[in-house]
Every structure is written in structure tokens, then in C-alpha cells.
Amino acid sequence: MSAIELNVSHRGTTYSLSLLPDSTFDALQARLEELTSVPPSNQKLLYKGKKPIFGDETIIDAGLKSGMKVQMLGSTAEEIGELRNVEDEHQRKERILRERAQKPQTKLRNTSSPHKPSDLRYRFHSIEPLLHLPNPPAATALLNRLANDPAIRHVMQKHEFVVAVLTELAPHEQPQLLGLNMNAGQAIKLRLRTNDYEGFRPYGEVRRVLCHELTHNVWGDHDNNFKELNSQLNREVAEFERAATEGTHYLSSTAGDIYQPSSQLEAEAQTYVLGGTSHTPVASESREERRRRLLDATMNRLRKEEEELEQSCGTAGPSANH
């Protein structure tokens, strides 16, 4: 009876296994646990052909053949423990934020628009990483960063967006998609990871996809109504960050809540301007003129990227208002 030779890859490492044809699928998973420390309950095997239904069926019955390449996804018990610790910390921070929301806010500088207290309804109500993918704690941290991004929270409050679940898209499940909004806010799924599962996509790119998917809370199709609102959201995010760099937003008086805006938008705006040419600041340029120039440059770049993003969005259908 010839042995079944399998090549199982997990996180960039390939394991060569030799098993008897009558070996059970449970035995294969036990062997993989020895090699990778991923318990069978966390293992997900991807291969062509029939998928296993019962753990005591043979690997032949499961559709595995000699020379077949198998990809395994899954996290170790230690990583799952780290994820629980991250979740516990997230819940602790959520509780602190809820308590602080009841306290009076103070401003750093005067602003023309009055401050309105946050409404806890308009937010992401839960974060759900895909536990069978590598490094769940890192995915959780990225989802939490997106959910608590001050500019994103600002537009969600302003437009009264409610999203039940913020989660991720696995690259192998829908490789053509970068984002998906299910049922106008029931769940938003974002592609966080690179195709090889070894890393994560740049934060700025993922956040732009998030703005796109938030627009689908209102409009389903990529029509003119969608484009107008999506452009507005991108503009409001850029304006929020520009204003935050100048200290004109109302912020919490607690030191831990002070917002430190990313310099990404300003750096990119200094590189990209209308028409695609570089620009050197003019000494006589006023503060407002400079702010408007940087904002226009940012919006010009975002419009071009949005045209490409529409091809990678899985959301389509009637608008949420209809």
C-alpha cells in the first residue's frame, strides 16, 4: 500500500507529510498540530476536491491524494489567548470611553461650530477578526484602530451611521474584493491582509475603503448620489485631520484622549496637487489658502483612487433609502 505524500503550507513554511491511505483525518490533524502548534479545532485546510465531513474518515475519503498541495490556516492556542487579552483590554477601554462620554468636554481653541456630545449609537458596535487567519491580535488591533479613528468617528456621528459589525475579508475567499457592506450597515467587511497572509495592507488604503463602504449605508449602487456622498465623506475626513493639526477641534480634557493626527494627508497633499504637478509653498500664502490648496490636492488624489476602488467593491443594489 503506497503512502500518501502531502505538502502542507502554513504561514510560509511547507511541511512534507507521508501518511498511509487508511490514516484518518484526525491523525492528519494531530500530526499538523505537532508541527505547527495549531490545535485541530483551529485548523482550516484548503485544497481542491472533496472536503472532510467527519474526523474519523480516511484521508483518501476526504479527497486527499499523493502529491497534493494543501494550505492550512489557523492560530495557535497561545495566539487565541493573546486575542482574548486584546478583547478584554478593548472592552475595558470601551467602558472607560462610555464613562467619559457622560463627562463635560472642553475645547483647545475656539471653533465656529458648537460641540455636540457623541451619540453612542453611531459607531461600530462590534469588532470581529477572522480567528482562523494568522495573527488575530494584529487584525483586532487594526480593526480597533479603524473603529476608533477620530476622523471616522467624526463622519459617523455627523451622518448618523450605524454599523453592527466591522470585520475582515479573507484574501482567498473573494480575491477580487477590497470591501463589502452587507445590508446597509449590518456588517462591513474590509480586506486587511496582503495576499500571502504575511502582512497587512497600508492603513491609509484600508481607511479609504472603509469610507467607501460607509457610503453604502445610504446608497447601494455606484451612481451619482453615491459618488457625491462618498466625495463628501472623503472631504470631511481630510478637513477633520487638517483642522486637528491646527487644534481647532473640541477634544477631551483627559490627556489619554488627545488626538495626534496623522501627517499622511499633509505629506501626500504636498506631493500631489491639481494637475499632478509638484508645488512649492509661497511665502505670501495665507493660512487659509494653504489649507485649501492641501485639501484640494488631497481630494484630487482621492477621486482618482475612488474610481479604481469601485471595481473592488462587492456592494451593489438598491439604495438604503429606497
Automatic annotation (TrEMBL):
Domain WLM, chain residue ranges per copy: 115-303
InterPro entries, per database record: Ubiquitin-like_dom, Ubiquitin-like_domsf, WLM_dom
Segments passing through the bilayer: none
PROSITE patterns: UBIQUITIN_2, WLM
Biased composition, class Polar residues, residue ranges: 312-322
A GO MF label: proteasome binding
Family annotation (Gene3D superfamilies): Phosphatidylinositol 3-kinase Catalytic Subunit, Chain A, domain 1
SMART domains associated with the record: UBQ
Superkingdom as given in the UniProt entry: Eukaryota
Ubiquitin-like domain ranges (all copies): 4-73
Protein name: WLM-domain-containing protein
Taxonomic path: Eukaryota, Fungi, Dikarya, Basidiomycota, Agaricomycotina
